[in-house]
Every structure is written in structure tokens, then in C-alpha cells.
Fold this protein.
Amino acid sequence: MQTSNTAHATVINRRGALKLGLGSVVAAAAFGAGSRIVMAQEGQVLKVINPAFSQDWSPLRGGGVPFRWNSIWNASAMYFDDKGVIQPYVITEWTPSADFATWTFKLDPAAKFSDGSAITAGDVKASWEVSAMPATKNQRIDQVLANVAGYAAVKDGAGTDISGIVATDDATLTVTLTGPDPIFFQRIANHIAPIVKGAQARGADGNEVAEFYRPENGGVTSGPFMLEAIDLDAGTLSFVPNPNFFGPKPILARIEITAIEDAVTATQMLKSGEYQAHTELVTSTIIADLGAEFAAGPVIPTSQHFWFNAARAPMDDPKVREALILAVDRDGLIKASFPDGPHTKTDTVMNSVPGADDPAFVPFPFDPEAAKAALAASTYGGPEKLPKLLFVGISSPANEAAAQYIAEQWRQNLGITAVDMKPQQDQYSGPDQNAVQIFRDDVGTRVPDAASYLSGSIASTSGNATGKMSYKNDKVDALIAEALTKPVEDPARVALAQEAQRLFRDDFMFIPWYRQTMSRWAGANVVGMEKNLDWQVVAPWAISVN
Amino acid sequence: MEDRPTSLWRDAWKRLRRNKLAVTGLWIVAVLVLVAAIGPWITPYDFLSQNLDARNLPPSLSHLFGTDDLGRDVISRVIYGARTAFLVAVCVTVIALLIGVVLGAIAGFYGGIFDRVMMWFTDMTMSVPQLLLVVVINASLKQPIATWMEGMYLATLNPIWRNSALVDFVLVFGSMALISWPPYARLVRAQVLSIRSRPYVTAARALGLTNRIILLRYVLPNAMGPLIVAVSAGLGTAMVLESAFSFLGVGVNPPTPSWGNMISDGLRVWTNYPHLLIAPAAVLAVVTVAFNFLGDGLNDALNPKGQK
């Protein structure tokens, strides 16, 4: 009798193959489920989509897409909650001098960096100074430190030390201003210049140390999470809890950020639940796609308008400006651009600050007949002789819908047909840059203050007035300047700002559009993603995923 | 009964009529031309008029292709877009054809240094990327010319200077034509090289006719067959190019509709309002296929020996 051991060892019949396959499936399912259980036990993970392959994640830039995530890994001096109430953070006490020209700040003695070292007044001073250095290119540092003595010299590159900021001791900081500023404490309550470790972030020349924040460079952080890994080519970042964070212990075990540029793809991935949040998703169907909760949030002191440049024909004629404003049905404008929200129509420049609701302010009416009469009374006499109108900043579907709606209103109500649109934002620098008459852009403030709002939007010293409107009204300037000297609790501060806004309204310089909602950009299953007027997550330690 | 004398074109027309796909393509192209010509008078609605109470409506009897995000009638915009597409296709193809025929005929007929220089020039032109050229034209030439035209309008108040088609179509897409001629030049050159040694050309020379007359009367007419095929395919390609550039935002500016920018807009909301993507995309696809059918049919009709 012949036997064959090899046959027993290698031959597998069909039934055996089926059993093996079935066993594999069962094992994979069991271990797969097991692995998911293990992951769940390890903690919650928030998966975020970023709309750009951002190449610079320094927390000191004061703007750009990465800025939106500053609060998850960096502490600030103070911060505003989603209701606009100031909250202590690294700084817990602030005391002005009688004339509001000197401020004394006390630091939280428990404040620590992620390496366990204490956050000192010297670190706060260094953070602000390095943010002020021109090479740092912080986009908004002026909003924080413009009134501080010695800031201008550092900003201009003439020095590295802001003389007005003095670390009296490790826990006390004294700031001397160039003049009275009753709301200076509010100006530092944001993440424009977050608190970084001075010895690590600042080099011997006073400038920012390149990529000091990266894990491989030993970057330490002051916020609730710390950067664990970053791959700029892949567009991925991951954050884990800071074990030495001096505030509440974070709930999340991990935050993962992944770059997905295409909004349609991002929407589908959010819809499927593969990701739960987005840095900033702006689509015309966001509510229909992801629900009202995804885009919900507080209305912040930021608003979008179409600004007229009074130095360029035909906007140099107030009657033309009046005609162009009165010819637009602004209820339709908001319906055309944000029919389902989250943003809402506004009549005024300033919004969501004390005094924004001014009963004496008369909104621009929709009055096509008055618009026609105004155009006929202008030096152009009608639409035929009007130069072509050029919009810039028409860079998103909502902007495009709004601009097309306005152009159509002008066509129907005034007979104007020559209108052009460009996508470039902010300062347009095309070959016809001197012909642009209409700029779509936002204005706003990071402090809940009417005078500051107008100072940054319609005062002749603001970039908006000089760069976009070529606007200067001495009466408006005087009212805003006076308002800025009044204490926060003085009703005159608001009253003067309101009067300035009413005067500005009579100059017919803008088509009011919408007040901005600071969306959560997070699914309904994400808790604690509320943001504030600084565009930051208010309490990152409280984020959880259900 | 005496038979009517036959000719290349009459035979080709007979063969083309027997090709059902080609005839279908021809009909579709004819409809496109008609729609492009009389579009503004047959659209059910003004292509610019907005109705915010009728936003994003699906196709219905009152709006056959539905409405867009501003409540504009999509079929009216598609019809107006046909005018854009046709203008661009004709613009690009005619300019490219003129350049290609002249250069190709001279190179092929005279040969020698003419041929070498022109073929070198052809090769060089073919190396220019179309998209890059259109972007550069947009960024550099378009706006100064538009500004100059605006100045002319304000000086004369003649609405012709405010016709955006002049800039968008003629300048931007015309510039495309400046680099689209090499295939025509090569084709004509090859045809001319083949024809110039035919007996009837030799006979014409023997009769003492000038080169210009020989070229225009005997050579070029006999090179037309392949050229017509190439033109029919070129028209379809130009339409796709226009859509591609408008899709990328370097073509026709809103609110003027073009199939490309309508597809681009529709793509952003296709999950919610698929009709906004399907309508312009389907029309573009049908027209492109029609031009291809027609081109294939013409090829078979004009070159029966080449049929499989």
C-alpha cells in the first residue's frame, strides 16, 4: 500500500476552502470590532478637514487658515466666550491707571507650558514682541499693540524691545500706552499674539525662530493640546492633550487635521461621518447638506459690505452712489446669497457690539424711482454715459450670487448693463486696479466695542477707508476719535459712535450686505465647538464627540 | 434620359446621406447653428432675469431644464450658451484655418527654404500650451484692451465698444486660434506636396499659368476634402476648449452664460440640484458627439477608399 503524506499536507478541497474563507471573515470581523473597541477606549478623536495645504502653521501669524486653530494648542492672555464676555486665561487680573494710559496685569501662578515650565510675564512680553517684529508678518498685531509705547519702533524694524511692556516680576506685567485706551484689556483678549515660550520662539536677534513649534524641534505649547505630528506635504497634523495644561483637562484624546481642498468632496466626507468638523466650509448648500447645526453659531462683530471708492468715476458723484444703493432690494440680496443662512441681513456698518442697534439710524430704502431720479440728477444724467462698473472680491459662490444679483437689480431698475466682476480679494492689483469702484470685503473688530468697530472701518485712518473707499469725513473722524477716549461704561462712547455711523450713512458709501455668524463648522455630534469673535474655538478642552 | 454628370462633391454628398450617424450629427449641428443665430428670440425667458422665489427648481413644463440658484431659467441660459459656444468655435476654427491654409500651402507648394522655415515655425507653435497662453492673455492683454474699449465707448457712446464678446471671444479665444493652426498647416502641406506633382498641375505649368493661379485654382480645391473633415472635428474641439476654459474661470465672465461656467457652477451643487450639472453637460456632450459623427461621415464620404 502506498501512502502520500504530501497530499494530506497540501491538498485542500472546496469545502475546506469555504471553511477557511468563512473563518477568515469571522476572525477579521471579530478582531476588527475588537480593534474599534480598543480605539474607543483610548478616547475620542475629532477629525477635521482643512481647506488648504497650509505650509506655515506658526501660531504667530495672526491670520490665515491655521490661525483658526490657534486656541486648541496655544493659550492667550485672556479670551472672549461665545457670548462676548471676557474670560481670564494666562492673565487673571487687569487694572488700569486712572487715566487708562497704564495697565497692570497679573498672571495665573499655575500657568505652565507643555514642558512643565512656568509661563512668566517675560514670556508674555516676548510673545508680543516677537509678534510685532516685521519679519514675523503677523497680520493683525496692530489691533493688539498699536497703542503701546515703543511698539511703532519695533514694528518699523528699528528695535526689538517694546519699551512700554515691562515684566515687573514673573507674575506681573505693566503696559504703558501712548495715550488713554479704556478698552486696552479687551484688545489683548484674543489669539492674534498667543503666549509662546520666549526662550524657544525668539532668537538672539529678536526674530521668530523658524518652525520653533514643530515637535521635532522640541516645540512646547501653552494650550490644552500639543502638536504631535505634522506632515505639510500630506496636509496632515495631529494634536494630543497637553499633560501639563493648567486649565481643564481636555476630553478629546486626539485632534486630526487633514487637508481636503475641494468643497464638494469635503461636504461628502462630512456627510458620511468620516470627518466631523471643518476649518471653514462656505457653500451655498451647506444647510441642506449638513444641517443647520453645522453652520450655527453666534453673530460676531464682523460684517460684509460692498464699498464704493469715492475717488473713482462715477463714484465721485454722490448722486450716482445714492442711485446705486437705492436701486438694490437688499432683502433679495440676502435671499440670493444666503437663502438658508447662517448669515443675516444688516443695514449698518457695525454689528453685534453694544450700540449696534441704533433706533435713530435710517436704513437705506429700496426705492427704484428715487434711484432713477438720483441717477438722472447726477452729472452723468443717466445710465448711458456711466463708466463701466467693476466689482472686485467676487471670490466665492455667495459673493458671485450677490454681485450678480446687484448687477441685475441695476440693469432692471437703472438700465445699467456694463458691469464687470473679478474674483481677487482685498487690494486688487490688476492692470485696471485704478478703475475698480466697488470692493466686496468684511470689516469688524475683535473687541465688543462700537468705537473700535468704526475706527477700523470708516475712520480715515483705517485701511478700509484709505484703501477701498478713499473716504475722509472730518466730522466722522472727530466723533470716532472722541468716542475712543470715553470709558467703556460711559454712554457717550456708544452715542458718539452711533452719530458717526449716521453721518457716514448720509455719504452713501456702501451697500450693506450681512452680519456674520461665526459658524461651528462641526456636525451635530460634536459638542463644545462654539467659537467667538476671535474666530477661535472658545473652550477646546470641552470639545467632545458623541 | 441623360445622366447628370457626377462630381467628387455630389458623390460625397450621396455617400454622406447614406450614413445615418453623420446625418444625425449634421442635423444636431444645424440645430445648434440655428439656435445660436436666433437664440435670444426663442428663449422662453430672459437669460439674465432672476426670480428668487423660483430658485433651484427641478425641470418642469414651465422650466424645461429647471432654474438655477438665482432663479434663472436654465434652458434659456443653455440656449444663450450655444451662441457663446458657436461663436468661439467659429472664431477659433476660422482664424486657425486661414493661418494654417496659407502657411501650409506656401510651404508645400514652394518647398525649399519656405518649407523648412514654416515647418520650424509650426513645430515651435505646437509647443505652446494652450491653457498657459489663454491665462497669460487674460492676465496681460485682456484688461488693457477692455479698458481701451471702455474709453472708446465713453468717447463715442457707441454700444459696440461695450460688447464683451469682442474681448472675451475674439481676443481670448482668438488667441487660442493663433496656436491652433499647426494641424491645419501640416495637413494642407501634405496634401499640396502630393497634388503638386499630379499631371494636371504639370499641364497647368506647361500652359504657362502663374504659381498663384495654379495654387488657387488647381491645388487648393483638390486639397479641401481632408481639410473639411479636420474643420468639422476642430469645431467640436473648440467648443470643448471653450467649456474647459470657462470651467476654469479664464473664459467668459459671469453673468454671461457659457456651457463651461454653467458646468462649473453645477458641479458645486450637483448632489442637491443635479439638473444644474446635467443640462449643460449633456448638451455639450451631444454637440461634441454630433461633430464627431459628422467628421467621421465626411471622412468616409470624401475618402471612400479609406473606408474599412
User: Anything to note?
Assistant: Chain A is about 30% helix and 20% strand. Chain A has two domains: 45-278+520-545, 299-517. Chain A touches chain B at residues 263-264, 267-268, 283-285, 288-289, 332, 335-336, 339, 384-385, 387-388, 397, 400-401, 404-405, 407-408, 411, 417-418, 420-421, 423, 430-432, 435 (CB under 8 Å).
